[in-house]
Amino acid sequence: MQARITLEDVAALARGCAVLGTGGGGDVRPGAIAARRAIREYGEVPLVSLDELPDDALVLPLSGIGAPTVSNEMVHGTDEPVRIAEEIERIFGRRPAAVMSSEIGGGNGVAPVAWAARLGLPLLDADAMGRAFPEVQMVSMYVAGIPANLVVMTDVVGNVVTIRPVDGLWAEQIARAVCVAAGSSALMADYVLTARECAGAVIEGTVSRAIAVGRATEGAADPLAALTEELGAVRLITGKLTDLERRTTGGFVRGTATVEGTGDDRDRTLTLEIQNENLVAVEDGRVRAMVPDLITVVDSQTATAIPTEGLRYGQRVTVLAWPCDPLWRTPKGLETAGPRAFGYDMDYLPVEKIA
């Protein structure tokens, strides 16, 4: 177990989170800048496991909510996590003991380093997705059957909204409406739990995992091969981005991206369906990979992950796919974040069987 997150770790963490973000979770660059600044100002961030926390310690899951295209322009400041922590202390009568990323993918996996440093708290080596998902209820705690007891949100203006939803689905509906009112970007805490309640309800080791993924390409003669091996991924196609349709609506980025194969993949075409994240990959009417498995677009030369808002015509890319955490393959996991949860009329098939 890595004891602390240092300045030297931020670049690897950011690269790994970008890969695990499957195109979403927000751009890692603002989060990496904020993390480095916070470490310089407040010190290195302890990285702790659940068994290092007292059973009654409060764990504060934090994430940005909204459209990634908006969050790139409306960057969170340093006061938002303070406002949320103060509201949590007011409600529970005690301070949080650790920060946790709600989703390890994208900027939401990197920025918690800055938030934890600002609050003077350790970062839990865990998250609630093992990747990135676009909706509030798409977290491991919901799959584990824990009630969505509380959501606290704040925006760049300083508004603080506390929600007491009846379940995770209502948490998504109300939080999304608040997010849209805030300009489609806000900071959110939900499923504030004790360390005892987190056991079995969060996905452990994901911060360390992201750092390992990020380090896999450092100094590699073939970064793409090194990343593919580290992930245990399937290469779906290598080619050029030839068509892109993308729009921001209802607090999400939605659209499609088309990759035409080059080299050994010439005469092949792969289409990606997007809702913040890459959800489904289709070739000639046949699904090659689908949520909740992970689908990521990377630069073919550097193996750097490209977020959905960073896709551009003409980019030379490779599309990789690999298995999700086993939690998402349970009946409740598939009901929550399988293809039908996003409106696709298809039964889930594991990527290792169909790709």
Per-chain topology:
Layout: E1 4-5, H1 7-20, H2 28-42, E2 45-48, E3 58-66, H3 68-71, H4 80-92, E4 98-101, H5 107-119, E5 123-124, E6 126-127, H6 140-143, E7 151-154, E8 160-163, H7 168-181, E9 185-190, E10 193-194, H8 195-198, E11 203-204, H9 206-215, H10 223-231, E12 234-249, E13 252-261, E14 269-275, E15 277-283, E16 286-290, E17 294-299, E18 316-322, H11 331-337, H12 351-354
Parallel strand pairs: 2-5, 3-4
Antiparallel strand pairs: 1-2, 3-9, 3-10, 6-11, 7-8, 7-9, 12-13, 12-18, 13-14, 14-15, 15-16, 17-18
Helix pairs in contact: 1-2, 1-5, 1-9, 2-5
In a few lines, what is going on in this structure?
This protein has 355 residues and is an alpha+beta fold. The chain has helices at 7-20, 28-42, 68-71, 80-92, 107-119, 140-143, 168-181, 195-198, 206-215, 223-231, 331-337, 351-354; strands at residues 4-5, 45-48, 58-66, 98-101, 123-124, 126-127, 151-154, 160-163, 185-190, 193-194, 203-204, 234-249, 252-261, 269-275, 277-283, 286-290, 294-299, 316-322. It folds into 2 domains: 4-209, CV3147-like fold; 218-354, Beta Barrel (CV3147-like).
Describe the fold and architecture.
The structure is a single chain. By secondary structure, this protein is of the alpha+beta class. It has two domains: 206 residues, CV3147-like domain (CV3147-like fold); 137 residues, CV3147-like. Strand 15 and strand 16 form a beta hairpin. Helix 1 runs antiparallel to helix 5 and helix 1 packs across helix 9. The two termini are 33 Å apart.
